[in-house]
Specification:
517 residues; 6 strands; two-stranded antiparallel ribbon; 20 helices; two-stranded antiparallel sheet
Length: 517
């Protein structure tokens, strides 16, 4: 049970959000409000009000950030002063609010369709799940009209970071701030991780009075898997993995910017300016990679070992291919898993070659996926709804026989194909959209690196439940950046114009020559 200090920290966090928005620019304050709440607020500490979502570490930071984004005025800019005649004093300049930016903003219809499906699906779930689930003494009632409203509110809470980021983190500068926040938060967390590696996961119990998850699951290879203030050690490993990728992306971006500036300034200026920022970013990357190794999260370390060499050997426009391949694999994974096309047997054999305990854990997840998929196949379109209706129970004793680990199997069992395609379609959409981008979007290490970070998080949703507000924030930032791309950077390349005979026959005269006079 949470102690009094846990509730004090949770309900004083709105003051922290207010201070952040008063001290920092809006995009930076928004990033730190959501990320800080996810990393430092207590787990499983909430107040469940009737007819409303629970007030917890997911709702409070997002709701306060939305209120502050609405209340924060736009930055001021000086008025344009007309030219003044000689001998007269210019009028005083009065700052005025910045005019509304006239940038093309084209809402993507696929994203809006996914959002609409997420809010409409609960109605269909209610219509197809009026019956009770009976397993021995266990009786789970059917979905009522009241539950429709509850599911819609939970969907709104889940999507709030996405909507805020789509609106306010849709620029190149905001993406840089998001990557820097990943690195800075990872460095701060690394110190706490070292404490728990040495003393076992105790920080959450020391401050908030209880363990956020089962302590036995954090014991690995003769040591401990740190949890800090997050629900599970696997999520800590995932966040450090994302911080590693963010640090490497910033390193590549600064090296590319320095090379481009060197070509413009010349070789002498480039040699006179040592890449200090790039070196610091590289050292941060090495440190975070070491922390990832020490966190004893094998899946996250294997993903890093796969992605980092590819990202090192390729350019930013090639990262799009890496992102879209794995995004497509995540999107069609339930179909491949049901048809027996997913290479789970090879993955199990590989896990056995590394560790028998890891292979046993992986086999346990596969067995649970099989029985949950069989249960979900009874209502494949709209699923069983929530409240444990999609789980498998013993028909005599009513004992729960299933364990749901992956986010995909939870969503697929609760909402069927309709809910799965709506939610994971929205999450994977930026990877497909950036595959068609050209120009600055395709060559930006920052934006393409952020897309890789999103896809890596989605890969973790297959074996684990790592869908967090940070995931939705990154998704919204990527989608908003694509929707606000300038007119000169179309998604499709402009067709080349075939030159005429006159252009081949008579070349244009050079400016300054006699023929041009």
């Amino acid at each position: 049970m949470p102690n009094l200090f846990a509730y004090i920290v949770l309900f004083s966090y709105p003051l922290v959000v207010i201070i952040l928005f008063r001290r920092l620019p809006l995009p930076q304050a928004l990033v730190w409000s959501i990320m800080g709440g996810y990393l430092f607020l207590p787990e499983r500490t909430e107040i469940d009000l009737p007819l409303l979502p629970a007030l917890d570490k997911v709702l409070i930071p997002s709701l306060m950030a939305a209120i502050m984004c609405w209340l924060t005025p736009p930055p001021l800019q000086p008025r344009r002063v007309p030219p003044v005649a000689a001998g007269t004093s210019p009028p005083a300049r009065r700052p005025r609010p910045r005019e509304k930016e006239k940038k093309p903003f084209r809402h993507n219809w696929i994203a809006n369709l996914c959002l609409l499906m997420l809010f409409i699906t609960p109605i269909g779930i209610s219509m197809t799940n009026n019956d009770m689930v009976v397993a021995g003494p266990r009786v789970i009632p059917g979905i009522r009209t009241y539950d429709i409203f509850s599911m819609m509110l939970n969907t709104a809470v889940m999507l709030l970071p996405f909507l805020l980021a789509r609106r306010h983190l849709a620029t190149q500068e905001a993406h840089v701030q998001l990557l820097r926040a990943f690195v800075a938060a990872g460095l701060v967390y690394s110190l706490l991780i070292l404490i728990e590696i040495r003393l076992s996961p105790q920080l959450h119990r020391w401050l908030y009075g209880f363990h956020a998850h089962l302590f036995g699951q954090q014991v690995r290879d003769g040591g401990y898997r740190p949890m800090v203030f997050i629900q599970h050690g696997l999520r800590v490993g995932l966040f450090i993995l994302l911080s590693v990728l963010a640090a490497f992306t910033l390193y590549r971006e600064r090296i590319a910017s320095r090379s481009a500036a060197g070509k413009l300034r010349g070789a002498r200026d480039t040699a006179a300016a040592p890449p200090q920022r790039a070196a610091l970013t590289f050292y941060a990357f090495l440190w975070l990679f070491f922390i990832l190794f020490m966190s004893k999260t094998l899946g996250a370390f294997m993903i890093a070992s796969l992605f980092l060499p590819i990202m090192f050997l390729t350019k930013a426009r090639h990262w799009r291919i890496l992102s879209v391949v794995f995004a497509l694999a995540v999107l069609v994974y339930p179909m491949m898993r049901s048809a027996g096309l997913a290479p789970v047997d090879r993955m199990y054999e590989f896990a056995q070659s590394i560790s028998a305990d890891r292979a046993k854990s992986f086999k346990f997840r596969l067995d649970n996926e099989d029985i949950l998929l069989e249960r979900a196949s009874e209502k494949p379109l709209l699923g069983w709804g929530g409240w444990g209706r999609s789980r498998v129970y013993d028909p005599v004793s009513g004992k729960d026989l299933s364990v749901t680990d992956g986010t995909w199997v939870i969503v697929f069992g609760n909402a069927g194909w309709a809910g799965y395609l709506a939610q994971f379609g929205l999450l994977t959409l930026p990877a497909f959209l950036y595959m068609t981008s050209r120009g600055a979007l395709a060559n930006s290490f920052v934006t393409q690196g952020l897309c890789v970070i999103l896809v890596v998080n989605l890969i973790d949703l297959i074996p684990n439940s790592g869908l967090t507000p940070v995931t939705w924030m990154v998704t919204g930032a990527l989608l908003g950046r694509y929707e606000r791309r300038p007119r000169g950077d179309p998604a499709k390349p402009t067709p080349r114009r075939r030159p005429s005979r006159d252009e081949f026959a008579a070349p244009a005269p050079i400016s300054g020559s006699r023929s041009a006079v």
